[in-house]
Design brief:
eight-stranded mixed sheet; mainly beta; 44 strands; OB fold (Dihydrolipoamide Acetyltransferase, E2P); elongated; 630 residues
Length: 630
């Protein structure tokens, strides 16, 4: 319709000429001429940019060819054009009718140059008034490059890559999330291990098409986001990827078993030798995100496992068979968990779909006593008592009748906000470590409900404590997993309070109607005989605290009920005082418990009286008891 409207308007202008032509000698309409001095190249346009927005005025113009249009939805209100010197990304004020291959003249008056995350753009181009189509089907041949040659100076250029393939972990996946109209990044690699991102809009017509598995050629446009070079695909038909995949790099490197790696660390080595590789199956589940995005867990063919820590977020999926080049990479323990660190994502190559190892059945006691046998592997604990809770987020203490171990769920895990149904379960999990053994489930499929039980009943003595109170709601009593809150005098007890998203235990006599308040917060029973070098620590804070309101005590003969009936000894710890700033968290320091043995309880005793003006608040958080075995 636009072309028809323009042609019709031209005929109306021509009619007076036709009617007057018989009265005098024929004459030609004046020709519209172009000021050749105003024509610039795309490279000259790019050179105008000096790091700040550049407004363009006057009669400057350029001739170029459209190399990417909006028709398949991978860009919106945009064009990419190119001449023999360079290319540039154009932001339009409205959608255009233009197609790839159209030769155009672009009037630059009123437009401006600027960067968006390091991608240079020509902005405010009205396709109706700024772009004049010259011809169609004047296609530009893509420039053949290698992945390392794709640099900032190639922005907005049409290129071709040969002998490339998508990373195996991306094959079979959609180009983007069409259902939620979200863009996604996929990784394209060559046979030398170089890689580049292919970015696709969730609005693209081909967003839901599957990534092909083969090797071959790709035609695309070069873009940039911050310091990351990217490619935009015009049409999936320009992907010719039906050839045999090239083998992943590193096949000529020495294969190390995970047992070899652990042995090397035990001998004092803090890095892996040169020219080495590791192979195995990923047992962590990136989809449900119950681990940091830079982490993964891998098991090799011998059934051993180890944690991996990448330099940035990786794309390794549950069940991927992978090869990782580990030459010279550091080995380190993070809070007791051995991991290979600082792994470049380009060092990891998925080679196929592996068989996920069957979990080994064990007990929580055996896991604690022989953790090195299970570290970073899949295990299964049967008949586990799981307490009811409002969500999975944080630590959830489990007990199978032999011992207690925390199951930890990261707040960003897909199931972190789901309610926990109490009862007995068979649980498959990754055996991880954070000062003490802990379990990481990969998804709720790892929890097999087997029936009702009594997870809220008396628990066996624990060998670790890691309590941040995040599982409690505001004003909840602290009474789960063996914790006790007891009012010795008055009716007040310790409760959970929340401020700024942080949950903590709090005792206060403020506005109490009791003449006096004595309240105890008591830990679960701890079996010190099962711990080599027990250490206890926590944080405390206050608001309008009076002196002598809080004590930290330990008992070896407390069996429940009224704490005053047991023998308590004061522990030497840094407790918050009235001189400390309000709300500041004070570290207790490491409290060594090696001088004690048997079953013990630790308690905070608060005493206050609102009628006497001793009504300040005491807060406790991040309580930990662990084996400081190093």
């Amino acid at each position: 319709m636009d072309h028809i409207r323009k042609i019709s308007a031209y005929l109306l202008v021509l009619l007076p000429v036709l009617f007057t032509g018989c009265e005098k000698d024929p004459d030609h309409p004046p020709l519209k001429t172009i000021n050749e001095d105003a024509v610039i190249t795309v490279q000259q346009l790019r050179n105008m940019y000096n790091g700040s927005p550049v407004e363009i005025s006057g009669d400057a113009m350029l001739f170029a060819t459209v190399t990417m249009d909006e028709n398949l939805g991978n860009i919106y209100r945009s064009l990419i054009v190119q001449d023999e010197t360079a290319g540039i990304y154009i932001r339009l004020t409205s959608p255009s009718w233009l197609n790839a291959g159209d030769s155009v003249r672009i009037v630059l008056d009123g437009s401006y140059l600027d960067e968006y995350n390091n991608m240079l753009q020509l902005n405010d181009i009205d396709p109706e008034s700024h772009i004049i189509e010259q011809a169609a089907e004047r296609y530009i041949e893509p420039k053949t490059l290698s992945i390392p040659e794709i640099t900032t100076d190639k922005q907005a250029q049409l290129i071709r890559l040969d002998n490339v393939q998508f990373a195996f972990e991306d094959t079979g996946m959609p180009f983007a999330d069409a259902a939620n109209q979200m863009a996604m990044s996929r990784t394209l690699t060559d046979c030398e291990g170089n890689s580049i991102i292919v970015r696709t809009s969730g609005f693209a017509d081909f967003a839901d098409k599957q990534i092909p598995e083969g090797n071959g050629s790709v035609i695309a446009l070069v873009t940039q986001y911050q310091n990351i070079m990217q490619l935009f695909i015009r049409n999936p038909e320009e992907l010719e990827l039906s050839g045999e995949r090239c083998p992943p790099p590193g096949g000529d490197l020495e294969l190390m078993s995970i047992a070899d790696i652990r042995q090397r660390f035990s001998q004092g080595f803090t890095s892996l030798p040169p020219n080495t590789r590791l192979e195995g199956v990923i047992i962590s589940d990136r989809e449900h995100s119950n681990h940091p995005g830079q982490n993964a867990y891998i098991m090799d063919e011998n059934g051993d496992g180890i944690a991996l820590r990448f330099q940035s977020w990786h794309n390794l999926n549950l069940g991927n068979q992978v090869r990782i080049i580990v030459s010279n990479l550091p080995l380190n323990e993070f809070n007791g968990l051995l991991q290979i660190e600082q792994i470049p994502t380009g060092n990891a190559h998925a080679t196929g779909h592996g068989d996920i190892p069957e979990p080994r059945v064990t007990s929580l006691r055996n896991l604690r006593d022989n953790f090195s046998e299970f570290e970073s592997t899949l295990i299964k604990i049967e008949d586990v008592a799981v307490p009811s809770r409002s969500s999975f987020a944080g630590n959830l203490e489990l007990n199978d009748g032999t011992a207690s171990v925390n199951m930890y769920t990261y707040e960003w895990a897909s199931f972190s906000g789901d309610q926990v149904q109490g009862g007995l379960y068979n649980i498959t999990a990754i055996a991880s470590y954070f000062y003490n053994p802990q379990l990481l489930i990969r998804s709720l499929d790892d929890m097999e409900y087997i029936g009702e039980g009594d997870p809220g009943g008396e628990l066996d003595p624990v060998t670790s404590i890691d309590e941040d109170f995040q599982s409690y709601g505001n004003f909840d009593d602290i009474d789960r997993n063996g914790w006790q809150t007891i009012a010795q005098e008055g009716n007040r007890v310790w409760i959970c309070r929340e401020f700024g998203g942080n949950h903590y235990a709090q005792a206060t006599a403020f506005n109490s109607q009791d003449a006096n308040n004595i309240m105890w917060l008591v830990t679960p029973p701890v079996d010190l005989d099962a711990i080599n070098n027990p250490v206890f620590e926590f944080q405390s804070a206050h608001e309008y605290l009076h002196s002598d309101a809080i004590e930290l005590l330990i008992s070896t003969d407390y069996e429940g009920g009224n704490p005053a009936s047991a023998t308590w000894e004061e522990l030497d710890a840094r407790l918050v005082t009235p001189d400390d700033p309000h709300h500041d968290w004070i570290d207790s320091g490491k409290i060594e418990l090696a001088g004690y043995s048997g079953i013990i309880h630790i308690a905070w005793r608060y005493e206050g009286s609102h009628p006497q003006g001793r009504n300040g608040s005491v807060r406790v958080d991040n309580v930990r008891l662990y084996d400081n075995f190093k």
